[in-house]
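Record copied across here:
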Amino acid sequence: MNANILISSAGRRAGLLGCLRESIATRGSNAAVIAIDAGSTAPVSFLADRSWVVPRCTEPQFVDAVLELATRERVALIVPTIDPELPVYAATSRRFGEAGVTVCISSPAVVQICADKVKTHEWLVAHGFPTVRQTEPRLALLHASDWRLPLIAKPRCGSASQGVRRIENWLELQAVVDSDEDYIVQEVAVGREFTVNVYVSRSGECVCAVPHWRIEVRSGEVSKGVTVKHLGLMELARAAAQALPGAYGPLNIQCFMDEAGSIVVTEINARFGGGYPLAHRAGARFTDWLLGELEGKSPPYFDGWTDDLAMLRYDEAVYVPGSRIRA
């Protein structure tokens, strides 16, 4: 496979860039990794082999711009990275496919379930997966005797932990209601927080599930984590991934597990998680399988990844002439 790979909304995803380059090198390919972003200051734009500034994914010109670029640059695979662009790619993946470009994206139904916390909760409950109690802020106030403080308030369609509030008293919840923003409230999940990175093949089989304990989180992304080979977490995540109607590629499932071993699922993200490089370094090389599936090779079931591997992140910088980011 010598066609190129495109990271969409590349931002700070230097770890993912490195994983893709490792997989390309392993295959003996000379493919380039290309980056696109809506801004000129995305660090990965200066680390990729080539990069372009494109319209925001919410703008009507986005799809045409990316499709033209992908065709011109011989792109075989597009890897989305942020939640706002997922519905756009899911809705247009067939159009990209007709141009010979595969988008690493689940079905529109899966993207809708994962993007909306009300739909996520309804889907989890309907399919019998353990989750936390959830309701609208207004209803929690109306039936305050049924709820125990503190609560967690989250934007209904938010991501990266933006706008998440811990509600310590009813006045704080009233403020959420009065804000007229679209929020949900959940009971506080107890125990340790985990992300389970899963890979679902084209045939709909979840071939790998790698839990990691989120020791420390910054801006919604794990900064310190350690892999944990816990069969309960792995089996629950695999079952959820396979039950989703049209999941494909990398997803991550957020869970909490208490001291007794009880697990609840709180969120599902239909994309590479920010902590995926930990799973990759542990031996679960999702990027290998993505490239292999482009060639029609089905990934094997894999649970041979390294347990108890820690990732401790730190910041690095890219130094470029200021004129390059003001262009």
